[in-house]
Batch of 4 targets.
Target 1
Amino acid sequence: LGYKTANLYVRNYIKPRHGVYATKTFIEGEWLNGFSYFGKRPTLSNIEPVLENHIFDKDFDLYNKRIRIQFIKHIRDEIKFNSIDEIKSQLMQDMVRAKEILL
């Protein structure tokens, strides 16, 4: 969908309510701003809940790296969309909102 994400399958942890959040991610010794989605991706697959984490303006290879995600503010609840284009449009709005919160 145009956003690089670290996808984490969260088991046996406290789980946030499904939706989109402004987040900070700790990686390689620094806290970086971004936004995250936690839920079942009802438009795409309706699978086991996954945490998708996007860091603004950085390109990291996060495979096999330990990261810490801090949830700053809930932006919106999980939504089932009618198309991929609707998802992309909403993600752009979510990113703008998260940047307003964090920057």
Note: The beta strands are 6-8, 19-27, 30-39, 50-55, 68-77.
Target 2
Amino acid sequence: MEYRYLKGWIKESDYIKGFRFQGLSVFEDQYVISFKKRKEILQIDLSKGSVFYTKQKTPFTDENGFCNYCNDHLKSSTLSDINILDNDRIVELFFTRVNIYNQQEKFRLILELIPRYYNIILVNDSDQDGLISDSLKRISFAENTTRQVLPGVIYQSPSSDFKITDTDVEFPIIFNYNSFDSINQFLEYQYFNVILEKRINGERSRILKTLRKKLKSKEKKLEKLKVELEDSLNETIYYQKAELLKASFHALKKGMKEVELQNYFAEDYPMITIELNVEKSPQQNVEWYFKKYRKAKSGKIRIQEEVEKTDTFIDEINREIFDIEEQNDYVQLKSYSQKTDTKVTKKKKSYRKMFIDDCWEIFIGRTNRENDELTTRFAKPHDWWFHSRIFRGSHIIIRNYKKKADLPDELRNLAARIAAYYSKAKKSENVPVDFTQIRYVRKPRGSAAGFVTYKNQKTLYVNPLSMRDAADIIKKMTKE
């Protein structure tokens, strides 16, 4: 971070002076100081070397040894002053407190925001020496010949040839087509809308890549199992061929590619051609067909169970993919990524939903099975059903709790846009979406999961809208 921004930020930070220290916590390279009875937190971004205060909630719940040490020594203290050194990007946070002996104690939390050398150092200023109490990174002469950063050593700022050329910031600050009237607003935006957003997108992409790789593997396995299942259903044919070969053993000779025999298992005893392995003897060919028969008979139940198990696993992966695509919480994504490295997390079935009010609620099917359950079992006759025309996608249900005759236009358009987004046309415009009441939707017997027929529908042409963006619209709708 440029020196001028840090210095300008300190000038406008009198607002947080006098806040009482509550705790220091950490998540990755972000450290946060929370204050008692205050919504604001002071965030130290060691990825870009900046510091800002914000009301945005970030669950910084992790602690390390340094955090614990600072929490013990800064307990019940007050942030009395903020300063920046004249020669480099080093910010000082001054804390004071009265100890149990009614003596005033002074501490300095030093933020060395120098690229590649980021550090946080706690200094005890109760005496004149200014001794280091502890630091995030400890540095000995073996690592740096010019200074030590160790407990009990007098703090010295690093020697630097850094030159300050411009300390003035012109307002408004223009960044990413946004205008900011304060440096804190700019630094806050830069972290949450640039740095954090980039990390969220990167983590989401990594998880989705892992899940899609597993999905592809399971889909290949399912295809293979279905071939095996189809093969196992031929157990009767293998048995009949084995018996026919056994009964006509005298007619078999090694080297024959096939033999034509009378099939006494069928009416009118038609002729049947049985393929043979030219490299096998007559006895080996008979045994081969019996082996195929036994394998098909014993394996059919096992394969059917494996098909169902694999199909369920595929459904779970698709559900996870849907949820991850919608997840915008970095901490949740990080914790989730540890699970995807081992196995897919099995969750209780719960549809994705968006509460509107006591009259309406939107439900979204994430997989073909969920589409089936939502439409054929969950939804009621007066509910409304949405689905993209032509394109495969989610079934969207609007629950009509009060059985109202008319669906509000704003809600109708919202559900249609969500249906367009969760379809194969999510990156298109003017996507056709059909909607009708559930009473007009039918599922043909024996049809594939997610397949339905419907009538009395109307069609809207809309632009896709994600759940995250839809949630913002719903907030505005409910406030009005």
Note: The mean pLDDT is 91.
Target 3
Amino acid sequence: MHQSFFAYGSFAEKQVHHSKFSGLITDSKPGFMRGQAYRLRCGYPIVLPHDGGDLIEGVLYELKTPESFWSIMDEMIGVDPVQPGLWVRDTTLIRCDHLSQTIATFYGLNPQKMNQVFRPIKGGRWQEDMFQAPPLTQQLEERHLDYIKKLSNAKGRELVPYKLDVYRALMSMELIKDKGRRPALTSLGQEISLFLQ
């Protein structure tokens, strides 16, 4: 099954989510969508589409996808129709040049989450914004990222062992909290966990 997918931010080439679909790409070309780009607290961009917004640059990929592709991607990015999260999967109009346009799938901001504080990215220039201030995942040490990943995969009251220096560092960055004598991710820590491979 062939699908058109518009990629920006964490889905762009050399970014954290690109590897999840790079083997399925059959064609690619530059594209633009209209919307407002925001910077998440963890540093990655997220777009809320609207017709009068900025031109958000990205890449339009043609993918040869298995039936399960979108459900796997939804789970990875935290899209849940029962308990809506930060992200939604939707379709939008993508302009590829002056003459061609198409409808493509993209991941963007859930409008119900606009009550949270996101910093608008001026002119929608997310690449420049990420270059000037890299996402937290690129600033943390591997051992910190590894512990966040373990906590995000823990089930129920499962206790995840930790080293004291890692615990203290993540507490000081407000990425974990003490929840009844066991560490748990804060909302920022949970946000970061969506961007770990």
Note: The mean pLDDT is 90.
Target 4
Amino acid sequence: MPRLFHVALVFVACLGDVMLPAAERSRAQPYNIVLIVADDLRPDAVGFAGNSLVRTPHIDRLAVRGAVFTRATCGYPICHVSRSEMFSGRVMMAAARRGPLRFEPDWTLWPERMKQAGWRTVYSGKWHVAGTPAAAGFASTAGLYSSGGAGRGALTLTTTPTGRKVTGYAGWTFKDEQNRPQPELGVGLTPETDGIIAERAVEALRRGGEAPIFLQVNFTAPHDPLHWPPGEKLDHRTVPLPRNFRPQHPFDTGNIAGRDESIVPAPRSADDVKRERAIYFRQVENIDRQVGRIVRALEETGILERTIVVFTSDHGLALGSHGLMGKQNQYEHTINVPLVMAGPGIPVGRRFAAQCYLRDLYPTLCELAGVSVPGSVQGASLAPVLRDEKREVRDAIFGYFTDTQRMIRETDGWKLIWYPKIATYQLFNVIEDPEELRDRVAEPEQEPRLKRMKAALAAWQREHGDPVEVNGS
């Protein structure tokens, strides 16, 4: 029988009795799809990952009732590149060339494929890829938040509560369904931005319709600028620093002078970093509340049991780890993302250590929904892992950032980071040393491993037409 799913990609899984026996599923009613994506969310900044400081009950409940992938990665740690990989299911190597990032005409994007298969495709929230939602395959928008719509450099809030100048999202506004700017809802990020996105997403769910819905919800938090969300503040003095906190990074990763690193200039004091982290964690809790609103809407409209919910982020963030603040790096706190799925066809209460990319979501959800995967997709379906047919779908994952960073991480936890511009390598075992405090690149006994991993990285570069000169020696 065809398996058509309403897939809700949110921070985690669906609530309720979603694991219905096949005989009890309605053949006449395909499943819904709802994709919820946070922005700059560290993989360890949610309760289900063991963070006792951050209260995320709605996301945690989804994790309990769904499946968590503990080694999910973003591929390229920048918002628009990572999101482009999700849409296309491809490695966006054009970003490494520092050229314009666009979707090629012969690629079939994920929302377009779902629309072709009969889903009602709706987009809500931050738009940060090439083109427009309509060009990507979304039939309508609900709370579209995108660049433009106000005067050049315009911002409702020009400084953050920690006294930092706002340098991002200038001129960004909400757009109505006719793409008309709504500056009255705020210009740039405000404490209300994500609440508006959730409200519009809920309205789209309540409108219903005969066709199943493919709803993508893209929140802006906890991306900077960091403003206190509505609700209780957090005393920064109670916020712990990460064990791998450093005032500054020991060498130039290729982005030391970047915007993210300039928000809190190095060397950074523990107090400065704690102040940023306090607001960041409260923003994560606000995202959790918005996830709760969406799940309640699914319940109240009676479609939760026919909906797969996936929750994730475009990438993580350093936020003081390794002497960095931004996401332009290959450390675990940044390349890893929280990833939870729940709903029909998703096992309950499971954790999978299979290495995967965000671009794997496209073929995974297509397979679960009974939709054929276009030939342009390079991602690998995780459905065999969910069915316990495979433990892994690949031997290694690879990361890249501009022409300054490359990375390979193998299934046994060994991870090599290469900085081509400065001829520097780092070697970690992230299973034994998850915070990457022990660089083992200089250990003589690691020479055979280094040679093999360099060769594997070089092969990946050749396969994807990497503009960085291969160096497998």
Note: The chain is about 25% helix and 20% strand.
